[in-house]
Amino acid sequence: MSNILTSPRSDDEVAALTQAWLEQAVIGLNLCPFAKSVHVKKQIRYKVSRAVEWDALSQDLEEELTLLAGADPEDIDTTLLIIPLALADFLEYNDFLDWADRILERLGLDGELQIASFHPRYQFADAQADDIENYSNRSPFPILHLLRESSIDRAVAAYPEASAIFEKNMATLRKLGLSGWNALPFVVSDKQA
Q1: What superkingdom heads the lineage (predicted)?
Q2: CA 132, CA 61: separation in Å to the nearest integer?
Q3: Beta carbons of 5 and 17 less than 8 angstroms apart
Q4: Angle at CA 48, nearest 5°, toward 43 and 49?
Q5: Could you give the angle at the alpha carbon of 136 between the alpha carbons of 125 and 177, nearest 5°?
Q6: d(CA 130, CA 114)
Q7: b/e map of 153-178 (b: 16 or more CB within 10 Å)?
Q8: Residue 143, strand partner residues
Q9: How confident is the model at residue 159 (pLDDT cuts 50, 70, 90)?
């Protein structure tokens, strides 16, 4: 099974699969103890980009960064910019992340916002492609997670063991195993895509 979805889906389907991943993996497995609060309060913006080229995706990213920076955190605390039609190759996605950070800096939002990364084929630098630990950052589609620095600071202050999250996630995923991950309802095989 693969997490990548290659066929065109409606924005509603893409957002629903992404929300299912958030609920079942990120919150359900407690991979991010900070996600539940903003999810319950409906402060997560799910924005689907139909871009297939970097220029259009850069424009969508710039619009979402500007919107998030200007929004009331009580309304929108974080944004998931979901990219179902581009950046399927993980190395290209990584290259785009560098470009995305330059956009953030050009907008003068570095230090106010940051971009976290999730991808169907996410792979840590020191890991093998099939290592279960990679799945802490694997999602149904390439995603740019736009976060407020102030929200991160508040969440880390409220969570006394923030530095232990990574190791806890690795232990959770090792216990779950690949068969457990593939049994999660949001995981879609290439045959279903």
Answers
A1: Bacteria
A2: 30
A3: yes
A4: 135
A5: 105
A6: 28
A7: eebeeeeeeeeebeeebeebbeebee
A8: 82, 118
A9: confident
Please name which of 133, 139, 132, 85 lies closest in space to residue 117, comparing C-alpha atoms.
139
Lowest mean pLDDT among 5-19, 52-66, 71-85, 116-130: 5-19
Q: In terms of Cα–Cα distance, which of 151, 170, 132 is closest to 69?
A: 151
- Write out the chain in H/E/C secondary structure: CCCCCCCCCCHHHHHHHHHHHHHHHHHCCCCCCCHHHHHHCCCEEEEECCCCCHHHHHHHHHHHHHHHHHCCCCCCCEEEEECCCCCCCHHHHHHHHHHHHHHHHHCCCECCEEEEEECCCCCCCCCCCCCHHHHHHCCCCCEEEEEEHHHHHHHHHHCCCHHHHHHHHHHHHHHHHHHHHHCCCCCCCCCCC
Q: pLDDT (tens digit, 9 = 90+) per residue, 60-102?
A: 999 999 999 999 999 999 999 999 999 999 999 999 999 999 9
Q: What is the pTM of this model?
A: 0.91
Would you state the structure tokens that stand for residue 187, as one six-digit string? 């995981």
> Which residue type is seen at 147?
L
State whether the Cα torsion 31-9-70-66 is positive or negative: positive
Residue with tokens 């609920």: 23
- Beta 143-148 vs 113-118: how paired, if at all? antiparallel
How is the chain split into domains, by residue range? 11-181
State the pLDDT at residue 190: 41
